[in-house]
Design a protein that fits this description.
The protein has 185 residues and is mainly alpha-helical. The protein has one domain. 77% of the residues lie in helices and 4% in strands. It is built from six helices and two strands; from the N terminus they run H-H-H-H-H-E-E-H. It has a two-stranded antiparallel ribbon. It is elongated and about 60 Å long.
């Protein structure tokens, strides 16, 4: 619980200033879109199960849509999770270290944030060519003549989400020393 209070306090502090507010608002909007997408996907899967099992009439393309949607939803929600201090990590270890060695905790937080920024930037760099290629070629996935959907929107979401997540990591890294438990705060 103390770790969550620390993360919430730090997230509130990060959301201040024009850059923090813009970054937080952008991340919250993308996360909200991801949440709505989860609900829509849930209804689609339930409708497919009902149609398949009770009406002998499955919905074409549900597996393809669900497969691509999961990745898109993760990238839509990553930046918000980072800014809120809720990205999956070994929180118990960070709390234990932080209770005895606040500077070591801050160093771990900084390392975590900078590593995240590099990883998400690498995802953007690695995805850029394929994303542009899918735009120019009109690439699609699915079975032609049965069900197809363009890949570009899903690839673009990866680029947008990873870019925002990388910026969120850098922003958190710049504000590590502002935590309430730090000696300088």
């Amino acid at each position: 619980m103390a770790g969550q209070d620390h993360n919430a306090a730090q997230a509130d502090r990060i959301a201040r200033g024009p850059v923090g507010i813009t970054l937080s608002l952008s991340a919250a909007v993308l996360s909200s879109i991801g949440t709505i997408w989860i609900a829509a996907l849930m209804f689609l899967v339930v409708a497919d199960v009902i149609g398949r099992n009770f009406l002998n009439s499955p919905i074409t393309g549900v597996a393809e849509i669900a497969g691509r949607s999961v990745v898109a939803i993760v990238f839509l929600q990553a930046a918000h999770a980072i800014l809120q201090g809720r990205l999956t990590r070994a929180d118990f270890l960070i709390r234990r270290i932080g209770s005895r060695l606040p500077l070591a905790r801050d160093a771990l937080e900084l390392l975590f944030a900078l590593t995240g920024a590099v990883v998400f930037a690498a995802i953007v760099w690695a995805s850029w060519g394929k994303t542009m290629g899918s735009w120019y070629s009109g690439e699609f996935f699915g079975v032609q003549g049965v069900f197809t959907i363009p890949t570009f929107p899903f690839r673009a979401i990866t680029i947008i989400g990873a870019t925002l997540a990388s910026l969120a990591c850098l922003y958190r890294a710049a504000h590590i020393r502002n935590s309430p438990e730090s000696p300088d705060a």
